[in-house]
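Lecture notes, continued. The same structure-token format from the folding unit now serves as the input rather than the output. Read the line below as a description of shape only.
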């Protein structure tokens, strides 16, 4: 799906992507970003989702924005407001509750 989307966006890259191909270094960075975090990351994510049931996949997918936010705070030194931290704690708490709940009690 992402590969087909990437192919469909090639004309846009040709029209507006001059900065991405202006220098070999810029091209290398763009290629790395396309291949490692996007392609490889989503390939492994898809393989992992295929090996669990739908309920588990949905629960795990809820954590993706929280992990991305934590990485932004830790690596890029982004600031997260108090409501953001409260929301993240609530999200992690609910996911932990779902993960520890016996399967026969699941709706």
């Amino acid at each position: 799906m992402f590969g087909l989307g990437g192919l469909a966006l090639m004309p846009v890259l040709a029209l507006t992507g001059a900065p991405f191909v202006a220098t070999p270094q810029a091209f290398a960075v763009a290629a790395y970003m396309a291949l490692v975090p996007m392609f490889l990351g989503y390939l492994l994510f898809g393989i992992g989702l295929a090996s669990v049931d739908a309920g588990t996949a949905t629960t795990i997918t809820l954590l993706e924005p929280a992990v991305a936010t934590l990485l932004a705070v830790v690596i890029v030194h982004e600031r997260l407001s108090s409501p953001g931290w409260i929301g993240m704690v609530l999200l992690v708490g609910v996911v932990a509750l779902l993960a520890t709940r016996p399967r026969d009690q699941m709706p």
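Point for the exam: The radius of gyration is 19 Å.
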